[in-house]
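Predict structure. Chain length: 268.
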Amino acid sequence: MHYLEVELAPVGVRKGTLYHQIRLAAKQPAPLREIVSEGEFRALALAAFLAEVGGSASGILFDDPVSSLDHTWRERIAQRLAQEAKGRQVIVFTHDIVFHNLLRDWCGKPAIGVAFAERSIERRGGAGAGFCSDGPPWRAMRTGPRISALKQRLVVLKKSYKEGAATYELEVRDWYGCLREAWERAIEECLLNEAVVRYQGSISTNRLKVALAKIKPDDFPAIELGMSRASGEIRGHDDAEALNPQLPTPTDAEQDLAAFEKWVASKR
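Prediction complete.
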């Protein structure tokens, strides 16, 4: 934030703890909060905190550090926190999937190369919040983990089908909705090699070169068939009564998932 001259000034000690305050370096009576935006103030506060704990190797925890910040600051903070993780444990709580993905990408860059562990906390209807699980939520999953998640849900589908559960129709249609979403993510990740990523600020031309070399004439028919198959089973189509379409069985779902997994493997 080169357009603002600020300083970190001590404001007192309480129970052995030294407290600081961010102030304008210029001699102006106006408080900093009346001059900067909420996002700018949050960025300054984060920079001040990192400067204060810079000489320590103890772990640090952040709760939604990019709230009120635009995409430019998200990228910078993701990079800074990934760099900080090279010397200490950094724990970040966030509901911002884009920021989560930025953190994951920066941690995986060769120049940084730090381990990135993911956990998710979700709300489950009337049961409330606080349910923890390993790995990211579905929206943040890459193609490989999505395939694994679909396989796990397939086990539940088979049980519901065998027991004749009244919820089977809802479960299998939702499963095919997730399969379609997995196809869409795979197009971005596997076919285009992440050369073009939604909400990313640039196009990676080097990745595009690799992607174009791998695209084959039979890719489009495979994608069209797989997505059409999934789209035809999700809820949202009012089929004609006379057609009386049959629900897909778990065997059908297993075959469709196998075809998707085979296509993904061909792009690796």
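Summary: The longest strand covers residues 6-14.
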